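Quarterly update from the structural biology core.
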Amino acid sequence: MNKKDLKKSISEKERQILKLKSHVDKSEVSAEVYNKLILEKAILNKELQDCTRNRFLERVKKLVPHKKKLICDYFKSK
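Predicted structure, tokenized:
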């Protein structure tokens, strides 16, 4: 899915969630559907986040070595 489709799906899930929110306490079935919609929306948000992430930059960051600070580094005299 592309970003546009994901955003459209997320907004549709939000509308469905808003409609079901008032009926959650009334029935167990509506509570289950509500929870399912919340999970689906979270999955779609994660997919959208993965699409917008710059994978090339993440690979470069993994290759570049990081100097880890040790606690003794804070106490060195300068």
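The chain has a mean pLDDT of 87.
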